[in-house]
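Q: Okay, next protein. This is CKLF-CMTM1 readthrough from Homo sapiens. I've checked the sequence twice, so it should be correct. Can you predict the 3D structure?
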Amino acid sequence: MDNVQPKIKHRPFCFSVKGHVKMLRLDIINSLVTTVFMLIVSVLALIPETTTLTVGGGLF
């Protein structure tokens, strides 16, 4: 008699509970990085710059 164990069926990543937790964690990290980036951009946008290089960069 062979001790053959049945093959475990593989579930896709997105249908497992771990998959949802990992995606949620990545979504939260992505949101935090985006929030920090937008705060930095908004603060830099409040600083008045009148050089021609800044205006040229804004055109491109």
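A: Here is a summary of the prediction. Helices lie at 17-46, 52-59. The longest helix spans residues 17-46.
Q: Noted. On to the next one.
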